[in-house]
Amino acid sequence: MWRTALLAFGLALPLPLSAVTNQSFQVSATITPGCLIVGGGVNYGSLNYGSYSALATSTVTAAMTGGITLQCTPGVALSVSVDGGLHSTSGRNLKHSSGSAQVGYQLFRDAAFSQSLGVSQSVSVSYSDANNIRLPIYGRVVLPGNQPNGTYSDTLQVQLSW
Q1: Residue 107 exposure: Cα atoms within 13 Å on the Cβ side
Q2: Is 77 in contact with 160 (CB distance < 8 Å)?
Q3: In angstroms, rounded to a whole number, what is the distance separating the alpha carbons of residues 124 and 72?
Q4: What pTM value is reported for the model?
Q5: Domain map of the chain by residue range?
Q6: Residues paired with residue 38 on neighbouring β-strands, in sequence order
Q7: How far apart are CA 122 and CA 101, in angstroms?
Q8: What is the Cα–Cα distance from 74 to 101, expressed in whole angstroms?
Q9: How far apart are CA 136 and CA 127, in angstroms?
């Protein structure tokens, strides 16, 4: 009887199985569209109309320079919006640094000054090189010829979306 119990125990032990040494697993990634802001820090650029006589009555234009470059996933829909600035009453205004005098100015999204960039208007930014995108912002001011001399300035907030 004892021998039968041992034999029964011996049959209950598992037999060694061959180990699986070759198997596969899945790898995947999802790339979402987006943009990267390169350079410029907190300054997206500047629009400098230059220096003119206090009696000048000409129309002066400028393109935004310096600041940032954007890099976007190819095909991403990029938009920009610019607020009215610190001195917006009935449009954008440059304000004298030590007084209340103001000079109105306009922004455009093309170098021909044919496409106005309204206050807080969201507009598409088109680009051909997804790794070198500049914000297309151009300005025009009509010098009134009767303002006090000094520095006139404004600060605008830019919002990017994609």
Answers
A1: 31
A2: no
A3: 14
A4: 0.78
A5: 34-162
A6: 69
A7: 29
A8: 45
A9: 10
pLDDT in 10s for each residue of the chain, 162 residues: 444 444 455 555 566 677 788 899 999 999 889 999 998 677 889 999 999 999 999 999 999 998 889 999 999 999 999 999 999 988 999 999 998 999 999 999 999 999 999 999 999 999 999 999 999 999 999 999 999 999 999 999 999 999
Nearest CA to 108 out of 153, 76, 78, 141 is that of 141
Structure tokens at 5: 């119990």
Amino acid in position 87: H
96 — phi, psi (to 5°)? -60, 140
Question: Do 120 and 28 meet the contact criterion of CB atoms below 8 Å apart?
Answer: no
Q: Using CA atoms of 153, 159, 160, 161 in order, give the dihedral in degrees to the nearest 10.
A: -160
- CATH of 34-162 given 2.30.42.10, 2.60.40.1090, 3.40.190.10, 3.40.50.300: 2.60.40.1090
Give the tokens for residue 55.
């009696």
> What are 74's two structure tokens?
């190819």
Q: Give bridge partners of residue 105 from the DSSP assignment.
A: 92, 141
Tokens describing residue 141 = 């001011």
